[in-house]
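FORM 7B: Structural annotation worksheet

SECTION A. Query
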Amino acid sequence: MTIHRVTLLATLLTLASVAPAAAEELVVATFGGTFVDNSKKCHAAAFEKATGASVKYVLGSSVQTAAKLRAAGARAELDVAYMDSQIVKQMKAEGLLQSLEPAKIDHWGDLYDASRDKDGYWVSMMFAGTIITYNTNLVKTPPTSWADLWKPSFKGKLAIPDISGTSGQQFLMAAARLNGGSVENIDPGFEAIKKLKPNVQMMYTQPDQIIPLFERGDIAVAVWYTDRTGAAAAKGVPVAAAYPKEGAIGIVPTVSVPKASQKRELAQKYIAALLSPEGQLCFAQTQFAGPTNKKVQLPADLGNLVPFGDIVRRMYFPDTDFVARKFPEWSERWGREIAR
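SECTION B. Predicted structure
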């Protein structure tokens, strides 16, 4: 070997030894639209600055994320998963999550009890709800009841969610309760929604599918989420929230770490960013999410818009353990009776 080649090899080895390691990547399954946009701003930015890691978001509904976890099995495809509570409880029961370490997650002790799994498999970073959203250009008298959706004046001007999303499951519960049923007696809900179908222009599967319909004036009302409504209105979409007198249906979105992930330590640092007062305030201001950290203080005008304080206390929170058990049956029946 010549002296020149020896020198060149030594130089290359030296450069390799001082080259910076590639940033560690955290793969996070979350919801799309404004939700992921504001997550990047309020949570990922602070996490990436603090850790030097990067966040890769994979978009989908709670049901879609659950399907990915089942399909992946022992393969580590996701490191953090956002899912609504009835779906995350299915994943916990199926052994597809790993337990968290509360002592290593900043702000865990500042949360409401309802925001933490008693066994430490998931935690909620926000309160949300299923409500009636109306087009302010087309509806001058805001709806006051779930029953208003069945009015002939909304024929062809209504969007409702598919049961694959949490809002679809919750609208089924609302329809059942409106007509003398309950979560345990869901039949009146199915019958009522079958009668509602002539009013429905779209049955959406992804929340932001209906934004263009509101913008064009194609729909007057929709069954939608509190946070999506506020975020859309802030961007100039002509929408406003109506809380039905029978009660909005409360949602507890969660984050968890899939069992196959090898990055629990890093994932828990990301979760801590979600639970911090700064992250929660930012998400309340941009995504209109109700804080689950008791130390968060909201401005009065914002506190009257998001699920916070009295608004949360007036919501109906279903037994999500029961919903998780019944969901497969409801989903199959929805496909047979509603979606066809």
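SECTION C. Observations
The chain is about 40% helix and 15% strand. The longest strand covers residues 128-135.

SECTION D. Sign-off
Analyst initials: ____
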